[in-house]
Design goal:
- By secondary structure, the chain is α/β, with parallel strands linked by helices.
- It has two domains: 149 residues, 3-Layer(aba) Sandwich (Rossmann fold); 108 residues, Rossmann fold, CATH 3.40.50.
- It is 43% helix and 16% strand.
- The chain contains twelve helices and ten strands.
- The strands form two sheets. It has a six-stranded parallel sheet, with helices on both faces. A four-stranded parallel sheet has the order 6-5-7-8.
- The longest helix has 17 residues.
- The two termini are 27 Å apart.
Length: 263
């Protein structure tokens, strides 16, 4: 098989990365995608740097079994704490979700907000990446640890989600009109986020990462040459009874067969 026709490997700490897959499927429908969700060890956002780095390397090793042409780390926490190590170890290119999100944030006028997990926000990875592009940019970051469990529970549009989102987002100054969704789970919570913070421009790291992948494929990686819609393979390290229902809402299409992989 030529490199261009190989799969794109995507992994996340859980099923939130399916929002990145959704963006990839919309932008690059011909590409083959192999998704790996580490649902047995979710969440990453409350764990130490060393543990997240180790998990990221393990997920990369599993995806290498499928000979990917590219790996997308569809997890902001893993991108913040494990991307560099995986890029060093991987035989294929590896991209994360923070740099594309930072690029989009640096281009908007005025102050920006960043919401993410405790591990992502404490790493200051978005601050560093944005300031490399726009040194004077004002950045206000808020850790929102309860949003991932709400998304995994499927409470995408719920009064409880509204209340918790309001508690977090009210910490951002009123003048912040652009907010980076610094976790791939958060796009599913947009109904609650929009009610809590109306007239906000949300930067979806999945959407901008898909555009970044498209740019890489235009280069020497190449697009898949098959004319049919690309296959989607779903791999998980654990599967709950409600995972299919919630996962399909993240993905926007049927999950199909779900395969379990051993850690």
């Amino acid at each position: 098989m030529t490199r261009a026709n190989r799969t794109i490997g995507v992994f996340d700490s859980g099923i939130g990365g399916l929002t990145v897959v959704r963006a990839l499927r919309q932008l690059l429908p011909g590409e083959s995608i192999t998704y790996l969700g580490d649902t047995a060890r979710l969440p990453y956002g409350t764990k130490s740097h060393r543990t997240i780095e180790r998990y990221t390397l393990q997920m990369g090793e599993i995806l290498q079994r499928y000979e990917p042409k590219l790996i997308v780390v569809a997890c902001n926490t893993a991108s913040a704490h494990g991307l560099a190590a995986l890029q060093t170890a991987s035989p294929c290119p590896v991209v994360g979700v923070i740099e594309p999100g930072a690029e989009a944030a640096a281009q908007v006028k005025g102050a920006v907000g960043v919401i993410g997990t405790l591990a992502t926000v404490s790493s200051a990875s978005y601050d560093d990446a944005i300031h490399r592009r726009e040194p004077g940019k004002q950045i206000h970051s808020v850790a929102c640890p309860l949003l991932v469990p709400l998304a995994e529970e499927g409470w995408f549009d719920d009064p409880i989600t509204d209340a918790i989102a309001r508690r977090y987002l009210n910490q951002l100054p009123f003048e912040v009109k652009t907010i980076v969704l610094g976790c791939t789970h958060y796009p599913t919570l947009r109904p609650s986020l929009d009610r809590t913070r109306p007239n906000t421009q949300w930067i979806d790291s999945g959407e901008v990462t898909a555009q970044s992948v498209d740019n890489l494929l235009k280069g020497n990686l190449g697009y898949r040459t098959e004319s049919a819609r690309g296959p989607l393979r779903i791999l998980l390290t654990d599967a709950s009874n409600r995972l299919r229902e919630v996962g399909e809402r993240f993905l926007g299409e049927a999950l199909g067969n779900v395969e379990l992989v051993e850690l």
